[in-house]
Amino acid sequence: MRKNQEGETLKQRSVKRVAAIHDLSGFGRSSLAVVVPIISTMGIQVCSVPTAVLSTHTGGFEEYSFVDLTDNMTHMFDHWEKLNLDFNCIYSGFLGSPRQVDIISDFIDKFAIRNGYTDTLVVVDPVMADEGELYSTMDQEMVKRMRDLVGKADIITPNFTEAAYLLDKPYDTDLDKDTLKEWLYELSQMGPEKVIITSAPTWETPEKTSVVAYNQEDERYWKVTCDYIPAQYPGTGDAFASVIVGSLLQGDNLPISLDRGVQFITAAIRASYGETLPKREGVLLEKVLDNLKMPVLVSSYELL
Ligand code: PXL
């Protein structure tokens, strides 16, 4: 087993370590502004790799500033390689340019330790779109390249729109349960062992939304129903995926981690909905972060 400079292995490390590759948006509670507090609160070290720096996220703000950090990412990874760092998890989200896919793929090839027992978990959240539309900085080239990155992941967490883009299928919220299961399966055939789709339509209760998942390992499909539509609050996808990362690294299984993610987002939306804040500011994360210290008390996952 490869040992790092401190002589520890991934398994022995008392505080696990995640390389978090996302943008830093100054205002609006998305990306690193939610990834860092959530994963840290769950007792895991976050090592940030900013893909871009923006004044705000792009959901509901105009004339935002945007600095692409593609070249800086290479410098950061080169330095980390010299330091012989290793990570329990590599977790990517919003990218600043399609070329970042090559840089991250290379980083995964060099840094993801694969020895069958304490593997580095590679999580790709293919942040590109929501509610049927690409975000303003995204284009078809990014969609194409994101398919390549998904192929390197153990777990992916697209929302329903991103799943449609990855599969090149029309965005149709009227689809039935069997078609949704086919989508999950087809995404897993692109490489990842576990596929989680958020903001998925629910056929029995159209006013609700759901998180659905497939695990290639045991060939089981899962579903957790949500009361609120998270897409209206930017950054909830980043928050959800971050809870999944923290939960899996803490040793939870897939359906329990789905429960924890949904329960956290539901609490965050409830904390925000009770006030009259603009939705573009995101959910009041600060009020509910401590919920992450608790295990799941009432579980609601079901087989799909
Ligand atoms: O929450 C996803 C996200 C991440 N980063 C930036 C965004 C968005 C969604 O709008 O604009 C910059």
Tell me what the structure shows.
- It comes from Natranaerobius trueperi.
- The model has no long low-confidence stretch (mean pLDDT 94).
- The chain is built from 9 helices and 12 strands.
- It has one domain: UDP-N-acetylmuramoyl-L-alanine:D-glutamate ligase.
- It has helices at 32-41, 70-82, 100-111, 140-150, 160-167, 177-188, 236-249, 254-273, 285-288, and strands at residues 17-27, 45-56, 66-68, 89-92, 121-124, 129-130, 133-134, 155-156, 194-201, 209-215, 220-226, 302-303.
- Strand 9 (194-201) and strand 10 (209-215) form a beta hairpin.
- With 304 residues, it is of the alpha/beta class.
- It starts with 16 loop residues before the first strand and ends with a strand.
- Strands 3-2-1-4-5-8-9-10-11-12 form a 10-stranded mixed sheet, sandwiched between helices. Strands 6-7 form a two-stranded antiparallel sheet.
- It binds 3-hydroxy-5-(hydroxymethyl)-2-methylisonicotinaldehyde.
- 3-hydroxy-5-(hydroxymethyl)-2-methylisonicotinaldehyde binds next to strand 1 and helix 7.
- 3-hydroxy-5-(hydroxymethyl)-2-methylisonicotinaldehyde (PXL) binds next to strand 1 and helix 7.
